[in-house]
Every structure is written in C-alpha cells, then in structure tokens.
Amino acid sequence: MRIVVRLRQNLIFTMMKKVALIAIILFTVNMYSFGQSVEKENKSYVIPHDDDNAFLINVGVGKSDIEHLYVPFSIEYFANNDISVAVSMLMGFNTETANNWEYSIFNYSTGLNLNYHLNTLFNLSYKWDLYLGANGGYNINTVTPKDWNAPAFNSDDNRLYGGGQIGIRYYITPVLGINAEGTLGTFRNGASLGISLHF
C-alpha cells in the first residue's frame, strides 16, 4: 500500500512540474511578443477589462494523491484587481482495494478559496493572471463496493480540510482563458487544468 501511495505522489509531483513548465513557456512567449505590460493608464489588469467586481467561472480536470480523477468547479468574485473570493466545489473519483475486495470512492468537497493576484505587483500583461491563496471547506466521502457481497469499508474521509493553491491563467480572448492550478493541503494534493469564463 505504501508503494502505491508513493507512486501516486510521484505522479502528482511530475504532473505539477509539467504544468509549471508549460506555464513558464507560455509566460516567456507572451513577454517576448507583447512586452512586460500593456499600457492602460500605466496599470496592469488581472482580467482583460477595466472593470472591478467581475465574476469568473472556472472548471477543469485534475489528479491528486487520493483520486484518479477530480473535477473542480468554482465561481470567483473579484473584489478588486488584486483580491478574489471563490465558492468552490470538487468531485473526486478513486478505486481502493481492501482484503481483495474493490471499492469505488467518491469525494464531494465544497468550500471557499481566497486568492491574491500578482499582476499589479509584478506589472504583468493583462493577458496573464498569476495568483496564490488559501482554501478551506468540508469533504463528504462515499464508499460503494463493486461486489455487493463485499464487507463494509469505512474510509473515514468525512472531514474539514484546509490548504493552499497557486495558479496561472492565460486569456485567449477577453472572455475565455485557460488555467492551471496546483494545490497542497491537509486532505488532498493535486494539480488540474481547465478553462475560465469571464462575466
């Protein structure tokens, strides 16, 4: 079991390294093409509009150390150009084996994310959104045996959780962006890729 967990952790860290490498490449290309900032009254904008109080819808797919696949979804509100708060939901899927019986694991997590966006600090192009933050919430865990003759299996993963995240977005259009995010926390460590829609 320890070997399986170690292999999963190595896979997550490898995936996060690939996400970071892709982000660095895109960032370098953007800086070369567009310069270090876009002149809009000498300000850099997190989103490709001048408006504060904007909303984002984020959705993606990812992998964690406890799940083969998870689907994150969030609605994010920008209080100003540097601070955003998001209501987040996540569905995670996994399979566990105990005493030669297989079980399907389903996690449903809901919580809040608080992000600080670094565009103003680093004077980045408006096409980019680099952020870091903290998160917390509650996870509900459901275990279903693949064979109904299997004995009960309690994973004991109904719990509060907390952690941090770092992410990056690149806006293809004023409305559509692609995003990559890595998370570390008390319950799951993972990485995801997805899209962001601005309203």
Overview of the molecule:
This protein has 199 residues and is an alpha+beta fold. It has one domain: Porin. 19% of the residues lie in helices and 52% in strands. The protein has an eight-stranded antiparallel barrel with strand order 1-2-3-4-5-6-7-8. The N and C termini lie far apart (45 Å). The N terminus is likely disordered.
Keywords:
eight-stranded antiparallel barrel; alpha+beta; Porin; 199 residues; disordered N terminus; 8 strands
Classify the beta-strand content into a percent band.
Answer: over 45%
Do you know the CATH architecture?
Answer: Beta Barrel
Q: What is the average per-residue confidence, as pLDDT, rounded to a whole number?
A: 80
Largest β-sheet summary: 8 strands, antiparallel, barrel
Q: What is the highest CATH level, the class?
A: Mainly Beta
- Give the overall shape, derived from the CA principal axes: elongated
Summed up, the domain count is: 1
Unreliably modeled segments:
1-9, 30-45
- Count the E strands: 8
Q: Fraction of residues in helices?
A: 10-25%
Give me the Rg, rounded: 19 Å
Structural class: alpha+beta
CATH fold node name: Porin
Q: Return the string of H and E elements.
A: HEEEEHEEEE
Distance between the termini: 45 Å
Strand order of the largest sheet: 1-2-3-4-5-6-7-8
- Counting DSSP H or I runs of 4 or more residues, the number of helices is 2
Concise synopsis of the structure shown:
This protein is an alpha+beta fold and 199 residues long. The protein has helices spanning 2-34, 119-122, and strands at 55-64, 69-78, 83-98, 101-117, 128-145, 159-171, 176-185, 190-198.
